[in-house]
Amino acid sequence: MSTSTIHDIGYRHYDGRRNGRAYVLRSLFVHNLRAAYGLGRPARAKVMPFLLAAIMLLPAAGSVAVFAVTKQEDALMRYSSYAPLLQVIIAIFLATQAPVLASRELRFHVVPLYFSRPVGHLDFVLAKVVAMTTALFALMAVPVTVLYVGGLVTKVPDSADQLGRYLGALVGCVLFALVLGAIGMVVAAFTPRRGFGVAAVIAVYMLSSTFVLIVQGIAEEQTDFTLSGWVGLLAPFNLVDAVQVRLLGAEKSSVQVAPGVAGGAIALALCAVIVLGAVAVLYRRFRKAGLS
Known about the structure:
The chain crosses the membrane at residues 47-70, 82-104, 124-154, 166-190, 196-215, 261-283. By secondary structure, this protein is mostly helical. It is 75% helix and 0% strand. The chain has 12 helices and no strands. Helix 1 (20-36) crosses helix 7 and helix 8 packs parallel to helix 12. The radius of gyration is 23 Å and the shape is globular. The protein starts with 19 loop residues before the first helix and ends with a helix.
């Protein structure tokens, strides 16, 4: 005879509301966006992102102050040139924060825990990429907005033209954020150690920029400005600048940009390829980590 006993411990199935995929995506996005700026983490995690954000704001505030005193329109920095001029600060932000979003779960081997719940691999990747893109966009768009608002308050002439340039610059900020975020996340995802991730992202930025500058210098010595413009597409900041110049009507910030509307269209297509390729690579990377 069996002496086993079944006890009623009051277990009930969950009958509450199920928030669904959109809620999961939003929660992952907010969590990663907060992590990009160190929110919800120790104070030392907030120092670098907020320090870099403050440095990004300083030139805009100084430019507005100079314009308010001199009333010379040239004193205001060009909206479309703000990100290329401060690309070193943006690259440092990307290098320090991309590993936080891309490699922290890999480093502590907790990716399978995410996928033990109804979280899709693609949703997980998209939430991270969009969060990194949003963090970079905020880093660049806020100073540009300060320039625009400051110019309006201090009575910049031809406000309608300024609005067009400002909106074009915001589109450029979106492209910068998408391309840089995609590249940074992919590099960081393959270097689980944060220190190596920071060094790897900086190395990719410096090597691509240095290579392009060297080749452009040689091409211009040979008066081959067309080649110089096409080579610029190999560097992320030059790539997006080509889109701004050829498709959005901005003034160039790079040494040379790809010629004609075709150059802008090819640059935009390359931006799309980089972003979609990065999502595909990250999907495979996290899917593999989720199975291990």
